[in-house]
Structures are given as C-alpha cells and as structure tokens.
Amino acid sequence: MHVICAAVASQLVVLNGTLNQAMSAWNYQ
Length: 29
Description:
By secondary structure, the protein is mainly alpha-helical.
C-alpha cells in the first residue's frame, strides 16, 4: 500500500511539474 502511495505521489509531482512548465510557456506567449 505504501508503495502505491509513493508511486501516486511521484506521479503527482511529475504532473505538477509538467503543468507548471506548460503554464510558464503559456505566459511567455
């Protein structure tokens, strides 16, 4: 169960980073 939580947490971090990058790119246009 703990492994699943860790995997979900890491996925959220990656998703958050991607979203942040996308928003930054959008703001530059």
